[in-house]
Each structure stands twice: as structure tokens, then as C-alpha cells.
Write a structure and sequence with these properties.
Residues 1-18 and 391-403 have low confidence and may be disordered. It contains 14 helices and 19 strands. The protein folds into 4 domains: 24-117, Sandwich (Tumour Suppressor Smad4); 140-304, P-loop containing nucleotide triphosphate hydrolases (Rossmann fold, 3-Layer(aba) Sandwich); 311-375, Helicase, Ruva Protein, domain 3 (Orthogonal Bundle), CATH 1.10.8; 390-444, no CATH class. The chain is elongated, with a radius of gyration of 25 Å. A hairpin with a 2-residue loop joins strand 6 and strand 7 (93-94). The protein has a 6-stranded antiparallel sheet with strand order 2-1-10-9-6-7, covered by helices on one side. It has a 5-stranded parallel sheet with strand order 12-13-16-11-17. It has a 4-stranded antiparallel sheet with strand order 3-4-5-8, with no helix packed on it. The chain starts with a helix and ends in an 11-residue tail after the last helix. 31% of the residues lie in helices and 18% in strands.
């Protein structure tokens, strides 16, 4: 049984204190194939090309022997093209000799893609992810999350997973289940999408019903909780559960008993509960949409699943896998993978694989069997347009009319936009379609973020 939240958090905090971030370069796509090779950036910088270092680009014939130099700077990375014929592209734009960039950037060299990151620890020493494997794709950041999940499985019978839609929350829940019941094939894993449960049926579906409990029930109906007895119940989008059902779920977890509708005696159950949501449960509690007592029962420990845009080492694998599924003769151009890596993908992996498969079918009749960016839909990976409600209409004479609300975006999306704009409040608000005051109110809840306000 669990010990305490403090034990869990202390064990997670310890390795982070012990090691400093090591900036470096990760080759995620080399000579037309997914790859995973990492090299640190020494104080004097590192020169990348076919000749060095460690054959990072050794098999890319379109890369020069001495192609690009990358150095660490106080506020980012200095990247210098070494006078190459094919050029160097940073975040999709050709580099004119040299420039300094804030934060992680994507560099295209020949037929290869390099991801310049603040810390290569998750990728150092890793092997290339299998391209055509049927198994799950688990890159560097997910491996770190998997470690947290494995630790939680040893100390707790609950886990809350926070992540955007399509980011792999069910995959993480299965990792929690597998770690909780190592080597077992008999322990059930029952996944429930709470957002898809019809209104008024959640209690019957979760806890079951006895024959005759109400009209239409001609036999005992087992609920999801009973079906998960001896295993793991995964409640995806748990924030969508009705408050009254939340109360009954809490009682079932506390008492380890379930009372089906129409039953006079409760049934004993032994389950682990993994829940997930794209929403922050603490915010839902504050807004009165989620029970505080249930939050303290299942909301900790919490593991965050990074969105796909933070896991670029996985993206080339998903692309190659989908192309191969359509036609084994299809290959991805570096520009296609680059275009995918530079898009937001609000639907994450779920959206990416569907759009890449669509692009594969569009390119399957081309004689060279190479998929390029123009085969992608113009809407693929792009956030949905924000619909302006009448209440959001600008006041007469307003110089910067609000077009969205901070609630239209996840915390991760707003934080990423701030990072992309160097912490500039005005530029970030303009990019998101927010009024500056809306963004400032959101920032008041996140004092850990460093910003600069240029008026």
C-alpha cells in the first residue's frame, strides 16, 4: 500500500537535483530514416557534418563534411552555416550565415533533421527507435514519464495522468497497469471514456444494476468497476463525471465496495484506479466542477504526458510507420518531417497519424514514391479557429479587441507560446488572439514563468 505523497515527490526530486542540464544536439532523422543519436555541446561549440562528431550525419550524402556549427549562448543557441552549397535551415527558414535562437530549434541539414535542445539527458545513450515495430513508440521524454509511473505503481493504488487529447494517456495508463501487475495476464484493464458516457447512464455503467432495478433490465448488468476487480480501472476524462457519480465513486474507493442499482448488499472489489484528463483537476475543484475530497483520493500522484510537439524524437517514427502501412515503397522527405515537426498538432499523435496516412495516399501515385509537405492538408496540425462569441465582442474604440479567452488554450499551449515569443506578453497575446489583460490574469496564476511586458 502507499506510503505518502512526500516519499513519492522526494524520490522524484532527487535525480533532478543531482544532475545539471546538458545542452546538445539530437539527430532525429538521418538520410531519409528515423534516427536517435545525441551529442553534447561543449563550451567551444560543436561542428556537425559527415566527418564529425560520432558519425552524427555520416550517411547523409547531401550534408557537407563541415556543415554547421552550434554553440551555447546565455539566451539560446548560436548556429552558423559553414558556407555550404545546400544550406542550413532553422525552423524551416534558410540560415543566412549565422544567427542566435532562443530555446530548442529544429535544424535541417541535407536530408537530415537535428533537434537542438536544452538537455540531452533523456536521449543520451539511447538507441534508434524501431521504425516498423508494432509496439508503442516511447521516446526520451516518455521514458522519463514511464519512470515516474513505475515509481508510482510501487507506492500507490491510484495515478492521475494529465495530457492533451491524443497524447497517449491510455498508453501511460497501461504502463501503470503493467507495472502494477508485472508478468500477469489475468489482471483486467478496463478503459472508460467518461466524456462518452450518455447522460443519466454513468451510475449504471460504472457500478452495474440488478435485474428489475428499473424498466428494461431483464438480467444483472455488471459495471465497469466490477469488471476491473483484481486489476486496473482507467477513467479517461474523469473531469466530465457528474458530481453525484463522483460521490459514489469516492465511496467505492474508500470502502472497496460497490452497490449496484437495485442491490441490497454491496460487492467487495479490489482495484487500482488510473484517471486522466486534459484539464487541471485543481482548477476544476476551484471552479466547483470536481469534488475536492475525490481529488485528494485520486488526483495525486500526477504524471504529465508531454504533447507531441515536445517529443520530436518520436515524430519521424510515426511518419515512417504510417507511410509503410500504406505502401512499403513510400519514403518521407526531410522537408515533410520538418513540416510535421513545426506544426502544433492540437490532436497530437492521433491527429498526426491520420493526416500522414492521408498524405501517403495522396503521394502513392507519384512515380518517385516520396512524400513531400505539399501532400499534407493545409489544415493538418493547425489549431482550430477561435469562434468569437457575442460576449467577447470588442468595446467601441478598443485598440486590441479580444478574439479568444485563455480558457481556449491549455496551460502548456500558453506557456509554449510565451517561450516562442521570448516571454513577451504583448507578442504572445497577439499570437494567441488574446487581450493582454487576459494573458496577464493567466500569468498571475503562474508566477514561476518569466515574462517581459513591452506595453
Amino acid at each position: 500500500m502507499p506510503e505518502s505523497d512526500e516519499t513519492y515527490e522526494d524520490s522524484q526530486r532527487e535525480p533532478r537535483v543531482a544532475s545539471r542540464a546538458q545542452p546538445g544536439v539530437v539527430a532525429i532523422f538521418v538520410a531519409g530514416q528515423p534516427a536517435l543519436r545525441a551529442v553534447a555541446i561543449p563550451p567551444a561549440g560543436v561542428e556537425l557534418g559527415r566527418s564529425a562528431p560520432a558519425l552524427l550525419l555520416g550517411d547523409d550524402e547531401r550534408a557537407s563534411r563541415r556543415h554547421v556549427h552550434v554553440a551555447r549562448r546565455e539566451h539560446g543557441f548560436a548556429i552558423t552555416d559553414q558556407g555550404t552549397r545546400n544550406g542550413t535551415f532553422v525552423d524551416g527558414k534558410r540560415l543566412e550565415h549565422a544567427a542566435t535562437f532562443a530555446g530548442p530549434v529544429l535544424v535541417r541539414v541535407g536530408r537530415s533533421l537535428l533537434w537542438v535542445v536544452e538537455d540531452i539527458a533523456p536521449f543520451a545513450g539511447a538507441q534508434a527507435i524501431p521504425t516498423l515495430s508494432d509496439g508503442p513508440v516511447v521516446g526520451g521524454l516518455l521514458r522519463r514519464a514511464w519512470g515516474e509511473i513505475a515509481l508510482a505503481s510501487k507506492a500507490f493504488d491510484t495515478l492521475f495522468i494529465r495530457g492533451e487529447s491524443g497524447s497517449g494517456k491510455e498508453l501511460a495508463a497501461r504502463a501503470f497497469h503493467d507495472a502494477s501487475y508485472p508478468g500477469s495476464t489475468a489482471s483486467p484493464f478496463v478503459a472508460v471514456n467518461c466524456a462518452a458516457i450518455p447522460e443519466g447512464l454513468s451510475e449504471r455503467l460504472l457500478f452495474g444494476a440488478k435485474r428489475g432495478a428499473y424498466s428494461g433490465i431483464t438480467a444483472d448488468a455488471e459495471g465497469y468497476v466490477q469488471a476491473a476487480d483484481g486489476g486496473t480501472l482507467f477513467l479517461d476524462e474523469i473531469a466530465e463525471l457528474d458530481l453525484l457519480v463522483q460521490a459514489k465513486l469516492l465511496r467505492a474507493l474508500e470502502s472497496r465496495e460497490v452497490l449496484p442499482l437495485g442491490a441490497s448488499r454491496p460487492q467487495k472489489v479490489t482495484i487500482r484506479v488510473c484517471s486522466a484528463s486534459h484539464k487541471a483537476l485543481r482548477d476544476e475543484v476551484s471552479a466547483g466542477r470536481f469534488r475536492e475530497d475525490l481529488y485528494y483520493r485520486i488526483g495525486r500522484p500526477e504524471v504529465r504526458i508531454p504533447p507531441l510537439r515536445e517529443r520530436l524524437d518520436e515524430l519521424p517514427v510515426f511518419v515512417a510507420r504510417e507511410l509503410h502501412a500504406v505502401d512499403t515503397r513510400l519514403t518521407a522527405s526531410a522537408t515533410l518531417v520538418e513540416a510535421c515537426a513545426l506544426r502544433v498538432w492540437p490532436g497530437n499523435v492521433r491527429e498526426l497519424v491520420r493526416e500522414v496516412r492521408r498524405a501517403a495516399h495522396a503521394a502513392s501515385s507519384d512515380p518517385d514514391r516520396v512524400v513531400y509537405p505539399h501532400h499534407l492538408s493545409s489544415e493538418a496540425g493547425i489549431p482550430m479557429p477561435v469562434v468569437v462569441r457575442p460576449s467577447d465582442a470588442p468595446a467601441v474604440g478598443a485598440s486590441e479587441p479580444p478574439q479568444a479567452s485563455a480558457a481556449s488554450f491549455t496551460d502548456e499551449q500558453i506557456a509554449q507560446a510565451l517561450e516562442d515569443h521570448g516571454g513577451n506578453v504583448r507578442g504572445t497575446a497577439r499570437a494567441l488572439g488574446l487581450h493582454r489583460n487576459q494573458l496577464r490574469r493567466w500569468l498571475d496564476k503562474h508566477p514561476e514563468l518569466k515574462v517581459r511586458d513591452d506595453g
